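Annotators were shown the component list below and the corresponding predicted structure, then asked to write short factual statements about the assembly.
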Amino acid sequence: MAAVTEPTTRSNPAVDPRGQDRRRASGPSQRRRGVLALAGTYAVAIVASAIAVFPILYIVSASLNPNGSLVGANAMFSSIDIANYVTLFTTPAQPYLAWFGNTLMIGLSAAAGTVFLGALAAYAFSRMRFSGRRFGLTAILVVQLFPQLLGVVAIFLMVTAIGDIFPALGLDSQMGLILVYLGGALGVNTYLMYGFFNTVPSSIDEAAKLDGAGHARIFFTIILRLSAPILAVVGLLSFIGTASEFVVASVVLADPAKQTLAVGLFQFVSQETSANWPVFAAGAVLAALPVVVLFFLLQKYIVGGLTTGAVK
Amino acid sequence: MTLISPSPRRASRRPASAPTASRSLAGMLVKIAALGVLDALVVYACFVLAMDDSWTLLVLVALAAAVINWVYLRRGGLPAKYLLPGTVFLVVFQLYVVVYSGYIAFTNYGDGHVGTKDDAIAVLIEKSLTKTADSPAYDMVVLERAGELSFLVTEDDGTARIGGEGRPLTTAPGAEFEDGIAVAAEGYTTLDLAHRFSRQEEIAGMSVPLSDDLDEGALRTKDGTTAYAYAATMRYDEEQDAFVDAARGTVYRDSGLGAFTADDGEQLLPGWKIEVGFDNFARAFTEPSVRGPLLQVIVWTFVFAGFTVAATFAVGVFLAMILNNPRVRFRRTFRVLLILPYAFPAFLSALIWSGLLNSQFGFVNQVLLGGAEVPWLTDPLLAKVSILLVNLWLGYPYMFLVATGALQSIPEEYVEAARVDGAGAWSVFRRIKLPLLMVTMAPLMIAAFAFNFNNFNVIYLLTEGGPQDISTDMNVGATDILITLVYKVAFGETSGRDYGLASAFSIIIFLLVAGISLIGFRRTKALEEIH
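Structure shown to annotators:
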């Protein structure tokens, strides 16, 4: 992916004349210590990278290994075959395609909703001055102390009660689940966007206002467009959060065909760990691939968002 | 003059302003359309709620709709127009959830305590219905109207009576007889054999009250052609507000526990939902079968979250430090490899690790340890160690990412100045870099603590909280943290569901996390002021 090697000529002591000077100036014992430290650094970096990468290599290998069990998966890359991927999509006992589609649908809807609702609020906080503004900003943070996760019992009972009157939003309804997730739309994400909107110079709005643009137009065509990176990050973070959410999803969605990947794959693999392992591996690889790719594409923004958002 | 030759300025201005006008008109139309759709949904919802007799909810929904319409149709009040959509969801699915959780924590809501007292009485009478030895038999047919089934029975005196589930027998309208047995009634369809067969289960599950007084018993049938009178063995005595077991003579009274209770403490279930005050909290901290496991779980939750934050911080900062050395080659490659665990969805990683650490077949035991059977996830102590290590694997890249950024923003002059003053590598780190890192990272560490305090996925997907603690009746395991305990108490399959106790635990978590965050953020504020 971004595995680009550093332009190393500058930092390579063998080529760098300044480095050679320094080495000549320092005594041989210090030189040896430097070399030792560097060797140690490489050793640690290589071991750490190996530990970091190993489980992922392992699951990729397991997914390609036609020897169908957990033990069989231990012989890494001994044979390569796509049989597990075929089984994954052709066995009705585990509706993987449905899980994948559900996760995509629920995750994308919740992410889009979160971005939209959060951006609306962030725009108001960033560009307008009104009484209750400070209170609103603080309230959003304070509410986060009680994550939805904690209220899972209340959410379950609420959704059950709603379903008695409106079955379309009750238990086993993905629409209902999305609405529940949108309850968490105003939160840290709003802060991320608020911070970013503040960096868009308000002189741009002023100029647009002079040209006769209304607030809605400024919001949709200027602010949102200039803030595209942060919208992408919030969307991705929210998508990953929703797609890996287990507790609420497992309680609201009971019908296997309606479940998400997190719930479905967990039940699939915990029923019969060894026998289902290779097929699970294939499912895990396919599920992780898009997330990993998107993560590295947006890495720069995500890291920026993580630090500023949490500090504010 | 203007008519004949419009000035160039005006000519150029007009096309510029025209689209704006049409845009705002379009915006207006979108707004009205959206409000229209919303109002249509609200009217539908109110209609359904009225059918359901949920008048309080109806008033709330109508009021909310009125507020929304007012906000968007009036002039001005612009901030509200932008804040309202998110706020609506926040209020319903976040604030209300908090309040409702608080309420449930003060009830006995759970298995056996779901409905109202009247529901419980009806169910208890129905449950106690048994076929008596001299129970009279009635000829009958099954009728259907609008999907609803009814029994048409012929009494001994030849009159036809009709009734259904929850509808006591009454005289049947326009009954038709065949050989003295009523076979059809006006407005109803008689089920033929095939239909009776296909709805057999539903028919066998029905009990039709003989009269308005439930104690008189009810009619049941197995085959749909003969019904028997079933009598209740339990009688509800309204004056005493108690159930009397006719055969044994036991009296079950409503003693305020949410169920009819005999003098020896035996309860009739189902009971009903009542408010129990601080009982759930009192149970949590005084009842030995709850207190012991709960205290263990609280301690482990703190260890888990605390160790995770400390260890991920140490490893993340250490790796960031050594890779910050410009003499190391392939730094970018190393960095990408090191943050892979963060890019990989955590719920999948947890499941993968559960396979790797499987004691019989897992890679760690089979390949790395040459066939040993180390109970990584099944021994109480080792399972905790495994959880901590796996969570370290999952969590250090976040600290690594942040530390890498923070280290690069430390001005080189500070370090140089310290070196000139004779500081070694360690004291440069200890006295210059670490304090500066802490300014950025301390708030993140508090956030990470709060997150890991409720890190359900790692625990549940790796061990399901197990191995099970067999020294207690409670469904709790050695690696359960508070939030997985909430889940098990509320939705566990082995033990009954206890929503009240689970919500009480939720409130306890909330108080703990809120307290810690408050103290933590005060501290970091102080830290920021120092620097």
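Statements collected:
1. Residues 1-19 of chain B have pLDDT under 50 and may be disordered.
2. Chain B has three domains: 20-104, 117-268, 285-530.
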